[in-house]
Amino acid sequence: MSSPSLIIRRVVVEGNLSMNQQFTSGLNVVQAIPTNGDPQSTNSCGKTGLVELIKHGCGVKQISKEWHFQSIGQQVQTLWLELEANGKLLTIERSMQSLSAVLLVREGPYFRGIKNTPSDRVSVDNMSSLLLNALSIPNVSVKMDKGDLTPLSFPLLMRSFILHQNDSFGAILDKVIPEKRKTDIIGFLGGITSIRRFEIEEELSRIQLDFKNLNDYFEYVKRFLRENGVPSLGEAQIQVSEAEQHLNLAREKQIGIQRNIRENIDFNEYKRDIGRIEELRSKILSLQEEISYSEQAFTFLQRDYERLEEMLASLLSDKKKVQRIYTSNVLLSGIDFDICPRCMSSINNEMRQRELYARCSLCNRPLTVTSDKVPIATPRTEDIDFQIEEVQLILGNISREKDEKLVSIRELNLLKVDISQALNEEARVYVSPSLDILLAQTYEVATYESELARTRQLFSQAAALDEIKKRVDDIKHKQDMLEEQLKEAKKPNRERLERLRQIYESILRAVEFPGFRYCSIDTRTFMPEINGNSYSSEGAALKGLAIVCYHLALLELARKEQIYFPLTLIIDSPAVGDMNEVSYANLLHYLVSLQFEGERNEEINWQIILTTRDIVEEMEPYVKLRLSHAPNMMLLRQAD
Fold it and tell me: What are 295-309's pLDDT values in tens digits?
């Protein structure tokens, strides 16, 4: 088994503006032709647009105001992307107007009339899994600090083999946040990090979330039991033992009194009345226990009612805050500046055009977050209203239960008073001191029985809390073990890292990287270093060259070894930062040498799509498309 093979076979756009371009394995060049010898005239003629179309077909989520083709959105309708994934042809259909619409996927090549054939409907979110599965790349995720998982989706991994002009040449995997995510991507695709690492991360995420939820529950229960006077497990055990001892002594004394009565009194004479007294006493004890349980249940309901009232007040406060945020968003988003609020200069059309490329019209910086953008984490008022309704419903239920408990307690107390009066009347007929002593001792036994029942209930609650604590400790132990395993699994494959370094060095020498002596790859970040310094310190021109060479090294590693990096590389205008002509020509010569080597060995199972302004002579046969600002040479042209 070799590394995943991904070949872009055809890109088709339908609409008033259209295109139909085929690509092959090996080197594919898209050249931008200057107009009147002006190099700047090659800008905006479609080089980056081609890359955007490929990304769009691969399921990248689009934002309307940042959509590359927003200005001509009504003139383009449908994109067709034909690609080959591990030898299997797929044709993907996606709307260029409704950016959130589902994609239609069909097996086989593109042909006229394919729109009328059966297809599978795939959402934008599910395209990642479809393409990863087609390329036999595992669906993996990395754990965040709080335990939730972030998937290494296909659009994210695609940043490593589709080098977009605006997103790739500022740094390796530029704009990928956080910084450690770059290491995760390179480690996974390059086979530098064991796949076991990601399996452990998913298991650890589940364990960490379980631990947090159970530990929070344990702390809540412990606080609740302490507030209600429940002792620790050891203290509860001592209380149960003492209550059992007192009860046993009281019962022994009661038996002794009963024996004396039988020996000195004619039992038959009092048999009927004694049975009646015992019956009444038993009813009183039963009622007392039932009242005790009802009062305890009422106390718990009262505490829940107070806690929910606090939660309701908090939700109402949150709702007001969210309403203020959305009101601020409406007010701020309606502001349209005609002049700069600082220097009072007019904002011209050229400045407004910057925002079409996700840059601020005033400062020309990339737009990431604006003042009128509602934070992602801001809840919706509908969700808060739903929670408020739910809390109010629960409050109503608890209030009804409290009222029912109060009525029940009053009724039980009244019944207890009536039975107590009856017991007193029955007891008045006895003048025997022995019987009085027996009744007193019986009451004492009942008191100790009630105390034992209470201590056993406290013991059961303390035991339940201790059991939760054991489960928390077990989960924490598992978490600690997995974290130790994760540390081991995160250690890089140094042999593969060294092979990547050797390939990278050979490429830098092949392109005659200026002043090159040696290179290395940081074992923590997997970022390259040239002559002992970070690649990013080489200056704008050489940094772009170093970045392209690093991605070429990953492609070469995928050709030689089985890793998850696809055998494809799309490079969008790499001559950034005024790369000198000699370095750029050497890079182009190297790309052609890869093609020549593949043709000699009759083994071209890879693909490179290069958009460029300049080419070298031997690259001429591999130019698939030429672009310029002439109407019939733009990427998208008027349909026939």
Answer: 888 888 888 888 888
